[in-house]
Write a structure and sequence with these properties.
mainly beta; 2 helices; Porin; 11-stranded mixed barrel
Length: about 250
C-alpha cells in the first residue's frame, strides 16, 4: 500500500513537471513567432502569507514582468499587508504596495515611465462547495501617481479545484481560475481593465505550492482596447508553521 502511494506521488510530480516544461516551451515558441505587439509576456510571482495568531495574518507579494518572453523585465511591484479574520471564511486586510513601470526591453536601465504608490482596504470571503473553493475579493484602492491621486475599486472572483484529491492537501494538482474587474471612481468607462487567469498548480507540501498559468489583460481605452497575454509562474508559500515554531 505504501509502495502504491509512493508510485502515485512520483507520477503526480512527473506529470506536473512535464506540464511546467511544456508550458514554458510553448510560451517561448509563441513569443518568438509573434509580432512585437502580440508577443507573449513573462510574469513571475512569489506570494508569502502566514498567520501570526488565531486572528491575525501577514502577507507579502513580489511580481516582475517583461513585455516579451525574455529576461528583459520592465515592470515590478512589491506589496505587503496585515489582515484580521473576522470569521473563519471572512477576512479584512489593510495593505500597501509600490509599482514601477519602465520602457519595454530596458531591464530598468531607463528612467521609469511611471512610479505608483497604492494603499487599499480588502475584503475577502471564501466559500466551499464539495471540492469547489470559491473566493470573493474586493479592494478599495487609493492610488498616488506622481502628483495625481485616483481611487479605484477591484472585484475578483476565484476558483480553486483540486483534481486528483478531494481537498487541497499535499500532492494535490489543482485548477485555478480568476476573473478580476478594475472599476475607476471617475472616468469615461465603467470598466477600466479586465484580468482573466487560467492556471494549474501543484501543492508540494503543506507550506508550498507551484502554480503556472495564462493571464489575459484587457485595458479599455476611450476608443479602443489593448489586450496583452502573459505566461505566469508563481510560487506560493505559507510561513504559518515557521511562526509557530518560534512562539
Amino acid at each position: 500500500m505504501f509502495a502504491n502511494y509512493l508510485t502515485h506521488m512520483n507520477f503526480t510530480k512527473r506529470l506536473f513537471r512535464a506540464t511546467l516544461i511544456t508550458t514554458i516551451l510553448i510560451g517561448i515558441y509563441a513569443s518568438t513567432h509573434a509580432q512585437e505587439s502580440q508577443s507573449l509576456g513573462n510574469w513571475n510571482s512569489i506570494l508569502l502569507k502566514g498567520k501570526i495568531s488565531h486572528k491575525w495574518l501577514l502577507f507579502g507579494e513580489g511580481h516582475i514582468r517583461s513585455s516579451n518572453y525574455d529576461l528583459k523585465y520592465d515592470y515590478f511591484e512589491i506589496k505587503s499587508g496585515i489582515g484580521y479574520a473576522v470569521t473563519k471564511n471572512f477576512t479584512v486586510l489593510v495593505s500597501s504596495g509600490f509599482f514601477n513601470t519602465d520602457e519595454p526591453g530596458g531591464f530598468f536601465q531607463t528612467p521609469a515611465l511611471q512610479k505608483e504608490l497604492r494603499t487599499w482596504l480588502e475584503l475577502n470571503l471564501k466559500q466551499t462547495f464539495s471540492r469547489f473553493n470559491f473566493e470573493h475579493r474586493a479592494r478599495l484602492e487609493q492610488r498616488f501617481i506622481g502628483d495625481n491621486y485616483k481611487n479605484r475599486i477591484k472585484y475578483r472572483l476565484g476558483l480553486l479545484l483540486p483534481l486528483n484529491k478531494s481537498e487541497m492537501v499535499q500532492g494535490s494538482i489543482y485548477l485555478a481560475v480568476t476573473d478580476e474587474l478594475f472599476i475607476p471612481q471617475y472616468g469615461s468607462h465603467v470598466i477600466e481593465k479586465n484580468r482573466l487567469y487560467f492556471g494549474t498548480g501543484y501543492k508540494m507540501n503543506k507550506n508550498a505550492a507551484l502554480q503556472i498559468g495564462w493571464v489575459n489583460d484587457t485595458d479599455y481605452k476611450l476608443n479602443s482596447q489593448f489586450v496583452k497575454n502573459y505566461l505566469q509562474i508563481m510560487l506560493i508559500y505559507d510561513f504559518t508553521s515557521l511562526i509557530k515554531k518560534h512562539t
